[in-house]
TrEMBL record:
Occurrences of domain HTH marR-type (ranges): 1-137
The organism's taxonomic lineage, starting at the top: Bacteria, Bacillati, Bacillota, Negativicutes, Selenomonadales
Residues that span the membrane, as ranges: none
Entry keywords, A to Z: DNA-binding, Transcription, Transcription regulation
SMART domains for the chain: HTH_MARR
Species of origin: Sporomusa silvacetica DSM 10669
Protein name: HTH marR-type domain-containing protein
SUPFAM superfamilies: Winged helix' DNA-binding domain
InterPro entries tied to this protein: HTH_MarR-typ, WH-like_DNA-bd_sf, WH_DNA-bd_sf
Pfam families, A to Z: MarR (PF01047)
Length: 145
């Protein structure tokens, strides 16, 4: 094993800490927990996504995903609708309120990251982006723990 792998793991873990709920004084994203935000983001990124697909993307069961969707539906950010293709399938769509909150959150944290990296040159930022893309591609290929 490459001697830098433990350092890579420790850096990822520390980043997760700073970008998780605890890094933002116990709150992630307005009135959303981190898992609710991630579910809402998946709904925002995918038209007519099923609860089962959300569960797969979040590495949780369909039942777990359904509970998360219940919470963000109660907040008015998503709606459950029958699939137009197959009426037996329930799809989740984002509401105008959901689009508004996801846009606000993404803008807020994009500005936060921009502020952190403001003193770095474009090439360094591109290198950070590429390294993170390699990591996320590897995680997706490998699968969740």
């Amino acid at each position: 094993m490459n001697k830098n792998i433990p350092d890579v793991y420790n850096i990822i873990q520390e980043l997760a800490w700073y970008f998780g709920n605890q890094g933002f004084n116990g709150e992630c994203c307005e009135d959303l927990s981190l898992v609710e935000f991630m579910a809402l983001k998946k709904v925002y990124e995918h038209d007519n996504i099923t609860i089962q697909e959300i569960g797969k993307l979040l590495n949780c069961t369909k039942s777990g995903a359904s509970k998360i969707i219940d919470r963000i539906e109660n907040k008015g950010y998503v709606l459950r609708e029958q699939s137009l293709v197959d009426g037996r399938i329930c799809c989740v769509t984002i509401t105008a309120q959901g689009i508004e909150i996801i846009t606000k959150i993404v803008e807020k944290y994009t500005a936060y990251v921009g502020e952190m990296l403001k003193d770095r040159d474009s090439q360094t930022i591109e290198s950070v982006k590429k390294a993170l893309e390699i990591l996320i591609t590897s995680v997706r290929r490998q699968g969740f723990i």
